Batch of 4 targets.
Target 1
Amino acid sequence: MATLEEQIVAIEDEIRRTPNNKATSGHIGRLRARIAFLRLEREKRSRGKGGGIGYAVRKSGHATVALVGYPSTGKSTLLTHLTGANSQSAAYDFTTVSIIPGMLEAAGASIQVLDMPGLVPGAWRGKGRGREVLSVVRSADLILFLIDKEHPDFRGLRAELEEAGIRVNARRPRVVVTPGTRGGLTVTSTVKLTRLDEDSATGIAREFGLHNGAIVFREDATAEQLIDVLAGSRVYVPSILVVNKSDLLTPADREKLRDLTKPFVPIFIAAESGHNLDELVLSIVRALAFIRVYLRPPGGEADRVEPLILRGGSRVSDLLARLPLELGRNFRAALVWGRSARFPGQTVGRDHLLADEDVVTVVVQRGRTAAG
Ligand SMILES: Nc1nc2c(ncn2[C@@H]2O[C@H](COP(=O)(O)OP(=O)(O)O)[C@@H](O)[C@H]2O)c(=O)[nH]1
Ligand SMILES: [Mg+2]
């Protein structure tokens, strides 16, 4: 019996040998699904042995930004200039990998910035402690890619993340998979599918052992996107691209770097002199899309002075996570005034999406003590 690794390599070879056209696309989709499935298995086994991924980094602040780049692109220099963190004294060991945290205060928010070891080609396979580094990247709210003239291979950098299941600047595909116990597999869609047919979708699902249940497409998804949904362990993280050491660039260099990184639009900085760091901080704040939410005690006035800072796209449940535990435990409903409310004082549940400058009252169950 071939090992997982051997099976993966064999299928990769088969994909390479198979001409890619309409007649073969279903077959190739299934092969890709098979690889994704085998990789998940491999991941599970290495976790079982205690040597796998899945570490958590000590998060703090309102959001976490990961500095991602090849070695020597200036990550540590940038961390120092953005946050004042001293790489040496602030370092803590994250299992044999040093992750250096700093705190950037901007727009009323505390943003944790993590400096980590540079990625080397093959990082996702574990080269240069790549797995550990990528597991930290997974948990970040924003990825800051740092490249320079000597290390301009942005595509390669992104590919390392892709292989590790990190989807950059993408949102979760709108495909819903509901496993069942009998009756076969039904595929339905609310939009016209042009990139994947029903048979291919069914074939891909089978590779993941899904023989009964429903797949609903709410967007014109690709085979890759369906595989991502079935694999289930993907994360979707926004990013910004930064070119460092702009002091060393000629106008022609800049042009070349712009071409190389299309359709991304890089921000040019010089970490050492601090050139353009203001613009970079603005971009970070914009990308994190913070919202301010004001709390209003039941029957009282809103505290307009001290907003709670949340990430854009936060729900009432995210707000509760920032409040004393009892409030979350005894939560009955929330009353909302502001842009997210259909009318002032609307009663909403935990899933309600909040908007900037909302005012919220948390209503707890009557008769419950603080201890619940
Ligand atoms: N010319 C120039 N050199 C820089 C700049 N930022 C960093 N460097 C240099 O690049 C080298 C690598 O920097 P470092 O922060 O250690 O990179 P890291 O490996 O990504 O953490 C150091 O020699 C820095 O002095 C910059 O803006 N301009
Ligand atoms: Mg460094």
Target 2
Amino acid sequence: MKPISKVVLETPASGIRRFFDIVSQMQDVVSLGVGEPDFDTPWRVTEACIYSLERGKTHYTSNYGTIELRTGISDYLRAREGLEYNPENQILITVGVSEGMDLAMRAILNPGDEVIMPEPCFVAYKPCISFAGGVPVPVCSYMEDGFAVKPEQIEAAVTPKTKAIWISYPTNPTGGVASRETLEKIVQIAVKHDLYIISDEIYDRLTYDGKHTCVPTLAGAYDRTIFLNGFSKAYAMTGWRIGYACGAPNVIEAMMKIHQYTMMCAPIMAQVAALEAIKNGYEDSEAMIEQYSQRRRVMVKGLNDAGLECISPGGAFYAFPSVKSTGLTSDEFSERLLFEEKVAVVPGGAFGECGEGHIRCSYATSIEKIEIAIERIARFVSKLK
Ligand SMILES: Cc1ncc(COP(=O)(O)O)c(C=O)c1O
């Protein structure tokens, strides 16, 4: 047989999955590894879907998604951020933010185009860029800067081949948040070099200290930003696979063209559920966010007390402590912690080279489990001294 695609062959499988295949074979493991809410989807959302299924809503929708959901998203963004996206041609309903990322890359990139992306970042960014024929250009962000990238580093990475800057604050895996000033500078770099901005704001609602800065609201950003968001995190809807992309009509139309031929539409039942979430689910999600905020304090204090330096993450539901003081690499630390103390975390190197020396600890799990995990981590770290 002839070989499969070179780009696919050269892309490593996700470091997270490999690790969790091992975890799934073990017993009594406390997992801080998962990147999804431990809460069930709010019942009103599930019920709205069941009700619609009982009424025979099981068909294709418009390729863009139902006009009801697009209008609901448009109203929500106007009320929350003062943003105006026309539901007719500036909003595309996608199969999770994951599909939105893939569509964005395929819609704007020509072979060899470069995309600047701060690391550590979500594991799918690099493959998405490569699968679309682009070249990922990682720039490091550091703990001492709260894991916000320095705009100067982005500027230094710009070449004549740069097509886009891909940012995501709050960030997976660090929980880092960029200040409004930093984001304004990044937008100005994009304006100066005429670049697209991809802004994945899936964790926007999970911002704990102060107000989230929504990138397309910044001066100069609106026309050049592909704004990605979804329901997985804030509404505990990971399995529904539903998200959305907003942007300039020509870009959204290009993304829709790919979506039309490859996906047709997002599942109608998930669209019905998402509409209920965005219209009536705000308080349910606020209650979950309040829980994450409490867990964050327990996690960060516990990790620091255990001897792992950890800054308080401004958003998402991850802490990203340094394990450098232990002398172990993040792979070694994570593997030994799993086998010796049965706590699962994700090695920071899975999120890009500059994640090395850190581990990702998700606090999307109960306080009781976090406390058990912290006790075990403290015991493990003290053994290493
Ligand atoms: C930063 C980021 N973007 C996108 C996604 C994917 O989200 P979805 O479930 O909407 O596809 C994740 C999931 O962990 C994420 O962390």
Target 3
Amino acid sequence: MDNRTNEAASRRRIAVAGMGYVGLSLAVLLARRHEVCAVDVAAERVDKLNRGISPIADREIEAALAAGGLHLTATLDAGRAYRDAEYVIVAVPTNYDERCNHFDTSIVEGVVEEVMRVNPGAVAVIKSTVPVGYTASLRARLGWRNILFSPEFLREGRALYDNLHPSRIIVGADRDDPEMAERAGDFAELLKSGAERADVPVLRMGSTEAEAVKLFANTYLALRVSYFNELDTYAEQKGLDTRSIIDGVCLDPRIGGQYNNPSFGYGGYCLPKDTKQLLANYDDVPQRLIRAVVESNDARKDHIADEIVRRLGSAEGSTVGVYRLTMKANSDNFRQSAIRDVVERLGGRGVRVLIHEPTLGGIREFDGYRVENDFARFAADSDVIIANRWEPALSQVRGKVYTRDLFERD
Ligand SMILES: NC(=O)c1ccc[n+]([C@@H]2O[C@H](COP(=O)([O-])OP(=O)(O)OC[C@H]3O[C@@H](n4cnc5c(N)ncnc54)[C@H](O)[C@@H]3O)[C@@H](O)[C@H]2O)c1
């Protein structure tokens, strides 16, 4: 066998369900060495990927697809993809259902059931964030052992980068099932061999502990955001300089200077829903802090709305210009973004809202509010411009801008 035949023979077959931030970054990472088939229910995403175009905004994914050489195909035909796979990575949405106070895991279930039906010898690896205890209960309900859970820690916009340089790789299995524990080790090796960071810590643990790692990690991040936001609320109300306080506090090496920049609240797809899910998991366990993390975010957005109205002088007849609906400067979506909740509060108080969001293209209205994507007209029509994150374009109208982005970074 020559080298190329050798390489082809060592390629493993992996299917990935869901071509969002999580699924697509893993698909691209693994397709550098293995045969990967990505599955989605969105025909447009499948079509784009098959044409070598990334369906999400991510520099590294775009570059990897443009460079070519990946063993990657996309399909709407889940059955076909799962039938041939050794591992099926499940990276589909788990939105928080406010009515039953829990993640809606029905899409994950649908995928795992189909894998079990068409290919019971495969292993399903859940990458979607799920409630603590979910994987064990799904294994029991389906009477199928081959389900692992591996938490995902990437950031949107740097999804592939974060998987190439992971802070850690964690794979959870049934601790009483030596065969599945071995498969967990094998899957962790697959991820590790695709990474560019050589010394990635790899942890193997029970699937329930792995699920807890994900929710406790995100709740800690939300806690930290909330802490510096409440510090800022205090400083604003007492007329103090937040920046000086944060600089002084964070020079303590135990606290550290990272992830301490005030904002309108934590947001994005994961932190709001993951904190609520952890709180739901506490159900019969005493706590005060976890609930406070959830409630603090509402209090922060109330304060921000009050502060904006105070700056306007009068809510009636004034116009607030909303500079970007995204959470971060480089984001391509505004799922659960804090500024949208602030806008809702302002709208409820009779403030006129004008939105500037270039990713909306030519549309004139969003969420019932007028959109003005010509920056000069937008700035001229706004009495106060609010921005969750500072961008250089705002320098021209600095005097009108209200932001809490004191360090000009995420
Ligand atoms: N976005 C993040 O930063 C992040 C980080 C860690 C974990 N997670 C978790 O990973 C999961 C996925 O998140 P995401 O941001 O990648 O979601 P996403 O919304 O970007 O992508 C999900 C994809 O799944 C597709 N899909 C829906 N139903 C499907 C089905 N039955 N079969 C195949 N595909 C289907 C959707 O069309 C979409 O393309 C969620 O549970 C999330 O909480 C997300």
Target 4
Amino acid sequence: MNLLRVAVLTLDGGTRDLLDKEIGERVSASALDPDTDEAILAHIGAHALSRYLPGEVLHALQTFTHTGRHALVLRNLPAGDYPPTPVTGFGQETPLAETNAVQLGLIQLLGITPFAVDYENGGRLIRNVVPNPSAAGTTSSWGADSEFFWHTDNPHLPFGEPGSDPRLSMPRYLTFYGIRNEEAVPTEIAAVEDALPLVDDATRRVLRSPAYDIGAPASNDAEAVYGNTVILDQGPDGTLVRFDRGTTRARDAVAASALQAWIGALARVPRRELVLGAGDFLIFDNYRVLHRRSRFTPAPAATARWLRRCYAS
Ligand SMILES: [Fe+2]
């Protein structure tokens, strides 16, 4: 059974070039930084995207959060002449203004709100997902040499309610924009609905009970823990999941055995491998999708894999 629903759309070269020209011109008039000029970048991007994207693509974006789809990929967006990969994690944002306008414009068309949190990524809105030598041996979006097991991002936070401050909850959606990926490393995704049938009823009941302590991932500055919480929860439209193998602790032996069964199920879960290259955008539902990245050998630093990640709820 494969319940994972992913929309994959590809722009033609003519549309890409129109977007590139208009957005490139409009962002070049001033220095635009996503942390101070997020609304202006989104405004520029969304305007051009609304004007040039084919109707079916616009419709897919505007309805995505209501369709129950797990993920959406939009390929062949503008890809600039990019600077070397900032493997330390941070680089100049101004040269990426066009890419930032496209990513933030897409987030606006999706009808969701981008946000940063002050305890992660230096409080910056957009994270450079790069193989950072200082993260060697850690399971982090800055890692490369360690496998990153199936997880949801920031599972130590509660699920959010519509209309609430997104910074207080798990990010509902993760968005990525590909800058370069010569190593062709996939981002793998799996639907929680595909993992559920791989464990028995009794195990599911334990996973739905507050029998776990779930900590913050390595990318967080603070060591926050969500105590006495669940791995699986019931949302208005189905099951929600919070999980990170590295930070989830069972509170008793019954919970520990259910956790082992869950980890075993995830090893067998149907998955989709998405290789994001230059100009490829991905969004997925962090409440219903688990994701992971296998270990890989990065290209030389200047051309190493580089994705741009922005949370949105
Ligand atoms: Fe992640």
